Every structure is written in C-alpha cells, then in structure tokens.
Please model this.
Amino acid sequence: MSGLAKGKREGPPPRLHGVGPGGLCLVLAVSLGFALPARGGAAGVPAALRPPQDPRPPAEDGEPPLRLAQRLQLEAMHRLGAAPSGAADELAALLAWNRSGRQPARDGFTRALPVLLAARPGGGAGSGFVEENGGWSGRSAAGRAVWGTSVEVEGAQRLRLGLRRVPAASGPRFWVWGEAGPPIPFDAGLRDPEGRLWTPSVEGPRLYFEAEWAEGMPESTFEIDQVLESLAPAAAGLTGAGPLAEAPAETSCLVDAACLDDGAVAGISTWKRAIARLSFVSGGQSFLSTGALLATTDLSFVPYLLTARSCFAGASEAASLEAVWDYLPATCGGPAPPLSGLPRSNGATLLATSPVSDFTLVRLANAPGTRSFLGWDPAAGAVAPGAFLPRLSHPNGLPMAFSASAAWSPPLACADWPTAAFHYSDPAPELGFGATFPASSGAPLLLQSGQVVGQLAGLCGPNAAAPCAAGVADSAVDGRFSTSYPALAPFLAPATGTSPCVRDVRTACLLAGRFEVRVAWTTETGSGDGQVMGFGGERAESDQSAFFTFFDPANFEMGVKMVDACVPAFGNRFWIFVSGLTNQAFAVTVRDSATGRLRTYANPLGTYPQTVGDTEGLPCE
Model:
C-alpha cells in the first residue's frame, strides 16, 4: 500500500480559495500530500509547443456556399420529433448505459431520416434553382453544380449528418452550418473505408448542408440517410442535473482545470493545450472520451493523438472523430464556453491499437491553433512507487478537469488489467485531488515532468461506478506506455538523419541503397518488427522492392515497392507503393538516407489493407 492508505496520508491539507458564487476553487501544489520529488534526468521526450496554426480549408480556391436551403425555404426540408417521443428507446438505452457508469460515456444516437436523400448535381446554368432529390439544386455564378438541404430535430442540442457512398476521390466539397456560426468546410477526407462520412457537428436543432461539384469534376452522387443527435451531459444522464428519475454518480469532487495555473501545478498551462474532448460514432451511437497530442523525437508536430482502445479501435470510428480543444472556462468557476466557438479537428486515421495495454494512436487531420505536444517516457521504470501522477481529462464530457493519484501496488487488481501491462495508482478524491469519470477514458497519465506514461483504462474496485467515493480498495488503472511503445515508436521516434541505410534482417535498402524501409507489426497479443523474407537462402529484395514476413519466415505478409520518378513529367518525386495480405496492424517507415525525410504508412488492426500508391512520395533532392 506504499504507506499511503486512505485516511493515513501525511502532509498539509489542500488550500482552498473562495471564488464567489461559483463555489470553491481548489489550488494544488504538487509538493503537498503524497507527492514525491520529480525524477532527475528523465528519459524520453519533453513536451513541445507549436506556434499558432490554422488548418488549410479543404477547398479554399472556390466560392463560399450559396446557402440554398437556408435562402430558399424558411422551414426545414426534413424534420424529426423530439427524442423523448421520436426516439424513446434510443434515449432510454443511452441513459441506462451512462447511469451504470460504463465506459466510454455515450452522448448521442443516430436516427434514420424520414426519406433517403440521393444527392446529385442538377439544374442547368441559367435555369435557376429547383427542388429535387430532397434538396435544392442549381448552378453557381461560376457554373458549378450545387445541391443543399436542411434537417431539423426538435429540441436537439447538437447535430451531425450521416452520408454514405461518398466517392473517395474527385468528389464534391461540402459545408455544414447551424443557425449560428459560419459554415464549416470539409471534403471526402472524412470518409471511412466503406464510404461512410459523418459531418462536423453544429449547435442547435437545425442543420444546413451544401455540396458543390467543381467544373469538370465527375458529377458523382452520394446519399444522406441518418442524423446523429448529441445531448448535453445533463440530458445524457452524466451529471446530477437534469430531469432524471435516477441520478448518476455525483460529481462534486471534480476539480476545475481553469482554477489551476503553473504556480499551483508546474507545467499545467502547457498540458492544457494538448488535451482534447473527443466524440466519435460507433454502432449507431455517439461516445465521448479524452485524448492527448504526443510529441515526436524529430519535433515534426505531426498531430498524433493517444487515447484508449476501449474507447475505439476501428478505422470507421477514427474517421468520425471530432476533437474539440481548449474546452474549459475562461476563469476559475466560470461558465463553460460553447463548443461551437472552440477550435476543433475533424477526422483521423487509425495508426496503431492494441488491447494488451489498451491504447489507440491516430493521426488527426489537423490540430488548429497553438497546440502543445506532450512528451513521454518509454522506460519500464519510469513510474516510481508512490510517484505523484497528475492528469487532465474531460470527465463526462464536461470542461477540462484535474485529478491526481499515487503509484502503488494495488490491494485489488482487475483481471482484465494485469499489472504487467497496466499502472495502478491510488486516487484521492477525499483529499481534493479530483477524480476521473467515464468520458475521461484515454486521458494521459503524467509524471510531474509532464511526460506521458500511460492512458486511462478506468477505475478498478468496489466504487468504480462512483469515482468520488473511491476508497481503500479502488485504483485508477492506465495502460503502460512502456508496454505500448514498440508499436508507437515507428511514429513517435522515427529513424531520422542522413546516415547510410544498412541492410539487416529487419531492414531493406532500395533504389541503390538510398531508402531505408522497415516494418513494425501489432496483433491482439503483441507487437514486433517485420523481417525481410528469404527464398532458398536469398533475400526477397531487389533494387525496387522488398517482401516482409511477421511470424513465419516462409509466409509473405506485405511488400513495399519504390519507383524513381525523378523527371518533371512525374513531379520529380520518388513513388512509394505498399500492399499486403494480412489483417494484422502494420506500419511501414521509409527513410531517405540522403535527406533524413520520412514517410510512414499504416494498416489498422483487423482491416485488410488497400494498396497504397503514393505518387507524392519523397522529393528528388
């Protein structure tokens, strides 16, 4: 129990400062309570702060949306009744899930539209706008085909539309907006491998949608069949407020992150800029969790985000991901800002995931604004017994909250979370150190240095459904970063520099030895490095291609081919092709030994890879 049993912790009590009508603001110093001195000479990677950056709009060279449905029709074109009557079963299932304390928290559900909308361009130039296919269509002043519609769900707080059969390339560009706020542009980059696409969310009961086909673009069609309604935490049964017959676990022990600055918890102002409130769609339901940006050894600021596999582990869920940043009050105890006014990232690519240490790593489509990228420590001994372990998360989908726990040997361990792959730590809500709730899942576990050493799996113990009541037998449980690291390393610690490529059992050297090619694989039970295949004592490698195996040296798993296209007609690039015959996760890293430039290609676990033909590849320098 590390001498830190409940009711026997030493140290002065937390300091409380009044903040007016909003209640009490807890200010913590990490030297209080059970905190230990910070580790000297910490290994791994420190946090990095990226300058302000806004994502480039998907299509910034065209006209803004014509707002056809909003201009031409006062009433919504398609309407659904309020959830208590129109989706009573879905609402009851959501409330039952959240009241039970299951993870991750649910905040919404999908409903079929009254009619299937087959969106296609129509209306000739100069013919005006016509109502067809469940929307308004016509031509813009530039002659581009445009189609738009509107959907209203009575009493809804947030809405998303579900598109299907969206073309993968050369498709239209899209916008979505509500009755307040500017139109949000996006494109087919948000589609999943099956052609399903979930629009960014808009606030309020009415959603407007518009698509535009560029001149000369194939006038492809797509369908709109569903609307997703997201509820506020109170309406979803995630807080003590709201008209609920059965109140959920009380949340009085939460600590508002807006009440803490670097004087209270060193480094917290940097950490806040790395934490995102996540929502995603899975099985017709919308879920909430937390994730964090991670730094890379080469400070590339690629938006790699870590969360828990128990939150999501599929390419479709990743594609539907909406990450909202900076969700916390402007002042301690102040009101939560509206989600619609905050920077967000829509869409992600699944890179690696494993149940062994319950992690999922994705690459976000973008990370807007000034963002922090958290450092990490992959050492097996990074967490010392009794170490003070702070955390920021979005419990129950609420504004960012602080919590902390102390590393210990647990009095009770859960069978699904073996201590070899999971950190157990002692939460202390009774000392004012906050708590985590279902939507905190995936939040990073930090050292005092701010380095990530795990991500939240959940609470183990008799009070798992009541975090504010955590007692002597309860533990916070996090997947160990050290266990996850072999699968994360190809992304977070890429081989860089201009050192020559050296062939070995795990490394192929292509195009006169200039390009180093390596493969890392992940299964449900482990991970490792791919090996270059051999046939009759000869390596399965030529100047342009190499075959790799994962488990059986005689069993082909995947291959990589490179083409020297260093002529102006082909863009002066080295082309890269990747293909495979496996549903295991793998990540291919191609390093240009002459420039140090990298390209990484990933196949998520449980999916069958499509051949990648990257004709942008690497530049001919």
